[in-house]
Amino acid sequence: MSKLIVRSTIPSDIxxxxxxxxxxxxxxxxxxxxxxxxxxxxxxxGQLVAVLGERLVGCASSLVILWxxxxxxxxxxxxxxxxxxxxxxxxxxxLYGAExxxxxxxxxxxxxxxxxxxxxxxxxxxxxRRIIACGRLPGYxxxxxxxxxxxxxxxxxxxxxxxxxxxxxxxxxFRYCGIMKNYIPEDDESCGxxxxxxxxxxxxxxxxxxxxxxxAKIADNxxxxx
Length: 226
Ligand SMILES: CC(C)(COP(=O)(O)OP(=O)(O)OC[C@H]1O[C@@H](n2cnc3c(N)ncnc32)[C@H](O)[C@@H]1OP(=O)(O)O)[C@@H](O)C(=O)NCCC(=O)NCCS
Prior knowledge:
Elements: E1 4-8, H1 14-24, H2 33-42, E2 47-52, E3 55-65, H3 76-79, E4 94-102, H4 111-125, E5 130-136, H5 140-143, H6 149-158, H7 166-171, E6 175-180, E7 194-200, H8 215-223
Parallel strand pairs: 4-5
Antiparallel strand pairs: 1-2, 2-3, 3-4, 5-7, 6-7
The protein binds coenzyme A.
């Protein structure tokens, strides 16, 4: 049995990533190849894949943002600059989860957990304050005629219902912070909505800045001068 590895995405993963994404979201507009190329150029550390032997079985992609600029309201397209990540801001303190998916044939085998571990490791390594994401709510369409999305999310929190994405994220230690409406309007399963979730880095050191904010210092450290 091959070992599951989470590693940085490399350009030669892109074709397989696009194929996997198309199988995960048959009804949502897929990423374009040049978007993935841009994501890797803009913030290579933030792009992770899960690999089982030769098989690419999942991905988690992130960027860094200044949360205060986005916290009131945003949608996926604006905060990720339509998937190009040109909104990535080295001055930010927040790792923003733009995407996570696992091969449908391998769900429930802790691939998603390994990818989230990779994200938490990155957040700690870069000394970022937190991870924030807006998670899809793909179970909501089944209940949409009975209740508003806010009640649906509460019922997932209370354990009355399970949602394929929010239940996973709660299990991974994220806190539910509210609903982001019209986050991905074409996401029919979630009726366009998403759950705003956050994980706070317990090791964040506020006095030293993030690693991305002090590239000169890192370069100096690597030279052994400071
Ligand atoms: C959400 C997703 C990434 C989860 O990946 P996964 O590999 O199936 O999840 P894991 O096996 O790592 O699960 C981790 C934990 O969450 C729990 N969990 C996962 N899915 C769950 C569900 N539907 N209901 C309840 N708990 C769930 C698991 O039981 C596991 O708990 P454990 O720690 O006790 O073992 C995957 O279902 C997916 O790709 N979904 C489609 C794409 C998508 O919508 N992504 C979200 C974008 S916002």
